[in-house]
Amino acid sequence: MKKVLIAPRKYVQGRGVLGELGQYLKPLGRKPLVLWDPVVKQIVESTVRQSLHGAGLEMVEAEFAGEASAAERTRVGALAVQGQADVAVGIGGGKVLDVAKAVAVDQQLAMVTCPTIASNDSPTSAASVWYDENHSFINFECWPANPDLVLVDTQVVANGPVRAFVAGMGDALSTWVEAEAAFKSRAANIAGGAPTMAAMAIARLCFETLMEYGLDARRDVELHVVTPAVEKVVEANVLLSGLGFESGGLATAHMIGNLLSNVPECQEQGLMHGEKVAFGVITQLCLDDEMDADEKADIVDFEIEIGLPVTFEELNLKGVTRERLQELAEACAGPGSLCHNHPFPVTAADILDALFAADALGRQRRTFA
Ligand SMILES: [Zn+2]
Questions:
Q1: What is the 257 CA–ligand 1 centroid distance (Å)?
Q2: Which residues keep their CB under 5 angstroms from ion ligand 1?
Q3: Exposure check for the chain: N or C terminus, fewer CB within 10 A?
Q4: For residue 5, what is the DSSP state?
Q5: What is residue 32's three-state secondary structure?
Q6: Rounded mean pLDDT of 264-275?
Q7: Span from the CA of 178 to the centroid of ligand 1 (angstroms)
Q8: Distance, CA 306 to ligand 1 centroid (Å)?
Q9: How far is CA 156 from CA 67, 91, 205, in A?
């Protein structure tokens, strides 16, 4: 099988780099469409306006309506046409970036993502995740190209919510375990080929970086300071995880994480993508017969230490029955599921057992923590 690796054209990360946005956009266009939500706008507006003005660029502004939906894609696309924008810039969280990417593709504009939180690994990817108006997960859509530029200001990330940063570590923690499973099962990656050695090395580095620096980085972000640990974990959450998942592969952890988005109890809890995926990681570890017991416990302990959900209770699913999770398990075992990216068959019963085993393991490790 051929090997394929895809990546953004340029990745820029550092304290204060948002002030250089104009300079980095200049080779890509003259009229950037900037998509942001009111909260992010308030934080970064003066920096962004100054930077674009300094580079002689004329900003076309679009305020995000709140969901990465088909309607929002159409609405923002129309604003880009109206303003004659030539580059789409998403500044904010995953949903804003996902809509900006779609608009770039639809309107044939250059594509730029500026994540202001490191809560997931979508900024570098050539994919968007779509939700319906009720915030339920619909599907992934893959684009023909990755962003032309990914720009991450680590001071902005460190000033942001700790919970989002930790959720990003949950998403990034899944990258190696899923890439390894997909690699062993010879599953094709999102890029449309087998993983390169580079993708697997990046995925492994992502995992090792989190396990070594994750706790330090969490403590530093609580103080809003930018330290080498914060820089390393931002790179792991955004770049290493992004390249690793897209050119490595996905498996059960993301299937569980995505499907939990559609469980009303989890929706009520307002869980972030990386938090659901973090529980999916433990579920996947409980499914895998080659998993080393000590390594499994280390991963669960790490999740507990940094503050990720490891039990049904933390997912707002305390006392959940097998019947209640049957539909989710059936979807996992169904056609086209990421759960088939393992070197062993996966049935609905296997998934249910792994979910309950994960909850029990999480509860047990928590009593030691
Ligand atoms: Zn993810």
A1: 8
A2: 171
A3: N
A4: -
A5: strand
A6: 92
A7: 11
A8: 18
A9: 22, 11, 24
Sign of CA dihedral 106, 108, 114, 119: positive
**Measured distance CA(230)–CA(235) in Å, rounded:** 8
**Residues ≥6 apart with Cβ < 8 Å to 183:** 194, 195, 200, 248, 249
**How many percent of the chain have pLDDT more than 90?**
94
Output the pLDDT for position 228.
98
Region 350-369: mean pLDDT is 94
Which pLDDT does position 159 carry in this prediction? 98
pLDDT digits (tens, 9 = 90+) for 128-137: 999 988 888 8
Amino acid in the structure at residue 211: M
**Domain 11-158: which CATH number of 3.60.40.10, 3.10.129.10, 3.30.70.2740, 3.40.50.1970:** 3.40.50.1970
To 10 degrees, the CA torsion angle through 230, 269, 264, 275?
20
The mean per-residue pLDDT over the stretch 6-35 comes to: 98
Distance 177 CA to ligand 1 centre (A): 12
Span from the CA of 334 to the centroid of ligand 1 (angstroms): 20
Residue 319 backbone dihedrals phi, psi, to 5 degrees: 75, 10
Q: Is domain 161-368 classified as CATH 1.20.1090.10?
A: yes
Q: What region does 8 belong to: left with phi over 0, alpha with psi -120 to 50, or beta?
A: beta
Please give the C-alpha separations between residue 173 and each of 177, 236, 355, in angstroms, as whole numbers. Answer: 8, 9, 18
Ligand 1 center–CA 111 separation, angstroms = 20
Give me 97's structure tokens: 């970036």
Instruction: Give the bridge partners for 89, in sequence order.
Output: 34, 112
Average pLDDT over residues 232-240: 98
Q: How far is the CA of 126 from the centre of ligand 1 (A)?
A: 13
pLDDT of residue 369 exceeding 80, the answer is no
Amino acid at 197: M
So where are the chain's domains? 11-158, 161-368
Counting Cβ atoms within 10 Å, is residue 100 exposed (0-12), middle (13-18) or buried (19+)? buried
